[in-house]
Write a structure and sequence with these properties.
alpha+beta; 99 residues; two-stranded antiparallel sheet
């Protein structure tokens, strides 16, 4: 439990550090989804991936609750870059009602 608590504290810290909280979300999530691309890369907290690395649909896994529905949003909070966020939050895709 202590490891999980430290890990989630780290998630909260990273979400604040990268401006996701409060710019995109009011509060950080209780758990994280995992994004794995067929190019061999994974989306992780704060890593930068190239369009070539992420051009195909990722495999997404996440913890679920029975009979719950989920919404998945892939967004770039500071597009096109952190130094020049002229497009603001860019939503790449939104998928709703996922079992």
């Amino acid at each position: 439990v202590q490891c999980l608590s430290r890990a989630m504290s780290s998630v909260r810290d990273r979400f604040v550090e990268h401006g996701i909280v409060p710019d995109v979300l009011d509060t950080p999530p209780n758990s994280l989804a995992e994004f794995q691309y067929d190019s061999g890369v994974n989306a992780e907290l704060g890593n930068i991936l190239t369009p070539t690395q992420v051009q195909n649909q990722p495999k997404v896994t996440y913890p679920t609750e029975k009979d719950a529905k989920y919404t998945l949003v892939l967004t770039d909070p500071d597009a096109p870059s952190r130094k020049d966020p002229k497009w603001g939050e860019w939503k790449h895709f939104v998928v709703a009602n996922i079992p």
